[in-house]
Amino acid sequence: MGKGGQDYGRQEKEKKSSDDSSDRDTFKAWARDVRECEEHFKVSVKTGLSSEEVENRRRIYGSNELEKHEGQSIWSLVLEQFNDTLVRILLGAAIISFVLAWYDGEHDGEKDITAFVEPLVIFLILIVNAVVGVWQESNAEKALEALKEIQSEHAAVIRDNKKIASLAAKDLVPGDIVELKVGDKVPADMRVVELISSTLRLEQGSLTGESEAVNKSNKPVAEDSDIQGKRCMVFAGTTVVNGNCICLVTQIGMETEIGKVHQQIHVASQSEEDTPLKKKLNEFGETLTMIIGLICILVWLINVKYFLSWEYVDGWPKNFKFSFEKCTYYFEIAVALAVAAIPEGLPAVITTCLALGTRKMAQKNALVRKLPSVETLGCTTVICSDKTGTLTTNQMSVTKLVAIGHNIDTLRAFKVDGTTYNPAGGKIENWPAGDMDANLQMIAKVAAICNDAGVTQADNKFVAHGMPTEAALKVMVEKMGLPKGSKDVNSASTSSLLRCCEWWSQRERRIATLEFDRDRKSMGVIVDSSERKKSLLVKGAVENVLERSSKIQLRDGSVVKLDANARKLVLQALHEMSTSALRCLGFAYKDELREFETYSGNDDHPAHQLLLNPSNYPSIESELIFVGLVGLRDPPREEVHQAIEDCRAAGIRVMVITGDNKNTAEAICREIGVFRSNEDLSSKSLTGKDFMELRDKKAHLRQDGGLLFSRAEPRHKQEIVRLLKEDGEVVAMTGDGVNDAPALKLADIGVAMGITGTEVAKEASDMVLADDNFSTIVAAVGEAALGIPEGLIPVQLLWVNLVTDGPPATALGFNPPDKDIMKKPPRRSDDSLINMWILFRYLVIGMYVGIATVGVFIIWYTCGSFMGIDLSQDGHTLVTYSQLANWGQCPTWTNFTASPFTAGNSVVTFDTPCDYFRTGKVKAMTLSLSVLVAIEMFNSLNALSEDGSLLSMPPWVNPWLLLAMSVSFGLHFLILYVPFLAKVFGIVPLSLNEWLLVLAVAFPVIIIDEILKLIGRCTSQTSAASKSKQKSE
């Protein structure tokens, strides 16, 4: 693959490498005039490069393509899935279980297939997990592939003094001369050397984060300009939306800005860290390994006397006797007990829980692409959000309309509601509906006709076509309505979204357009009214339109001279709107058009020649009549302010990182609540460049409250995320553009926009917002974090597994046969190990175990008594279930308090009332753990017989089981009432009443299974009687 282009001047590596490399690094095309660029790249704009020179440069720089990084092989991905402590433990357990089954699972010369069930189940779980993991990892490279798709495939190039209309973009080299026109994708990073049209605008927001198309010129800028400030450069992957130009290629391939993003995505994908969930599971796995190892050694040592004996002679042990067979046997027992303690179902349970979480998030418009991100989202401590399209609607909207009053010294201001392109979405406050005066009618006419945009509706969304600012003006016209007495309103299409604009267009037919250019900063149209009267309608930058105006129209339509006081009044209104981060446009018109009185758009009319030369436009747009101005912006989403407040209450910091203008971003941040209205932003709001120059960047990021980074480039965003992660923060990063992809990849959870997001951003993300809404992120965080507090921690689950599996399972091996065993028909050789009825029983019992364990947790928090058992003696505070289920929102509750409560001889206290759901849950956790242990012990009694009642097979028929139950309960009492052990397991002693609650919740497992056994016996008897009757017949 090609090496990518560098600035011209680099020669063969063997020749003057150091000199040319230095030259390449210091030459900045954006800061040099056109002549210097031609000299540096040794090319003429008129003739282009020669074919010989092109071949020479291609040998040096390679192709204009992004590198293809070799992804991991499928086998390395598979092996990587086993680089996990818990998975390795399960794998080891499966292998040991398989070996034991192979050697000990033989009966009557045949292998007992049931002995292989456990290892096969574990293997199956591991295979499923590996497949899911490989599938997710293989998606990692898709972001790089999506990046290649936004590159241009062809370019119009000048070479050998000839124009090549369609050259493969990959064949471009530094120094090539390229022509761009409207709709073209830029094929490489290039210096604009000549404008063919009066205006050149490019849409580069996906790369730079700017919310509007950017005007370009061929004039040099400062050397230290950021990417947004390089107005004489066009960048690969961006699109020309207006104008034509000639450019000089400066960088190709991996040296372009998009190539740098490509490299950053690749680097970020190589440095992905484990999610918080995986870290917890690894810690759990390490603890599990240590405990299982100790169990193996302890059990083996306890039985050492059975395979190793000796005699004491003269006080010294001698005559050692060792039995290898018995040693191996007891080792197998130790290993079998250890394997039984391994929670082989845990990976499957985790995957299932995360999958259920993705469904609930999808209902809130958050589409999860990677399962672990569900848990990660719930741990989020910092949200780094883009501004445009996430905090704002990414739909320009008029928010203020300023018209002229009854006299020259007064202005009228109207607030315009609505934040989208929906014409019915909002109204104009204090608007004279159906009674517009002449001045307001003229504003509506100019806004509707001097406009090339449109608005359509698709899938319940309103979409702008053309310039967003012009679309916003048309929406404003619809909100203004039609003049009073508009009899022919039905002549406009009643089904049209823009029927008012259509009405104006039918009355005033456009016959010529004076295109916008960067010098006069305005656009004009010549119209022919229904009265056959020609007029000029103009909109543009307020200062420029005002400067070319000599008169002003009053409210009643009368026209008076525009004096200095009137100019000052308009400029004052402009200043107020500009300081509020509004983009302002002024409106004017002109009735006296002598040259165009007989013009109707014909090419042979003398006036047509005036329109062909843009240098005539300023003189045509002179002596204007000023009529008013409007303020526009990309408004914040209505629900964002509350979402920011929710984040603040939950202790989640919000940082806004945008490529947009600093003043605009600060105004939006104040409005949505990231900053308070009078907050000093000197240390809170920095440009990306200023942040990178700070000595202690981490200290800046540690500040309380919100932070803003404007004019941020991809590398700035990536650095912010990296530093936050180094500081121990769990970072969620949002974005929609190509420039966001590296940071999305690097963040703990990357969140891409579903509507406006580029495919590059989506492929680099962990989650996609279907509605592009910041509040959806907050809702998803809440969905991941809410629900009742976790009832058990890993070390407690491991304890349950060890205590309830080992001793009772061993003791059940001493079960006597059922009393009615000889009354049952022999089991068929092809009968399944577990039939459907037994499976149903297990499912019912399992459901009750889950309900009881969680239920007792909820009971303690919400009930003062249960089944006559008083639970209020410890003095704990009762809450509602709604409060418990939404405990994550506790900081937002007013007047919530929680009292300390007793636990044994100690008192549990909290630093804040909301800690009642964190440190205060220790009693509820102890109850859940105790119920789980008790319920498993009672369930072991159910296992005395497959379908016989405890009345016929009472517990004392197997004294070993009673002993095992006593041992298990004794061990549980030990960790409850020995302070050191209670602290290790995160539990507290229980009172007598609390033990009664444990027994009351756990004991029904026996009743439930007794009922199920009774149903099973009745069904079996009925089935047997039916078969007997059939045989007799």
From TrEMBL:
Signal peptide residues on this chain, from the entry's feature table: none
Compositionally biased tracts (Basic and acidic residues): 9-25
Origin superkingdom: Eukaryota
Gene3D superfamilies with a match to the protein in the record: Calcium-transporting ATPase, cytoplasmic domain N (3.40.1110.10), Calcium-transporting ATPase, transmembrane domain (1.20.1110.10), HAD superfamily/HAD-like (3.40.50.1000)
Subcellular location: Membrane
Keyword Nuclease: no
Main location: membrane
Keywords: ATP-binding, Calcium, Magnesium, Membrane, Nucleotide-binding, Translocase, Transmembrane, Transmembrane helix
Topology term for the membrane: Multi-pass membrane protein
PROSITE patterns with a match to the protein in the record: ATPASE_E1_E2 (PS00154)
Pfam assignment, any one: Cation_ATPase_N
Record-annotated membrane-spanning stretches: 85-103, 115-135, 288-308, 328-356, 838-861, 956-978, 984-1007
Domain Cation-transporting P-type ATPase N-terminal: 28-102
Region Disordered, residue ranges: 1-25
PANTHER family assigned: CALCIUM-TRANSPORTING ATPASE
Official protein name in the record: Calcium-transporting ATPase 4, endoplasmic reticulum-type
Source species of the chain: Stylosanthes scabra
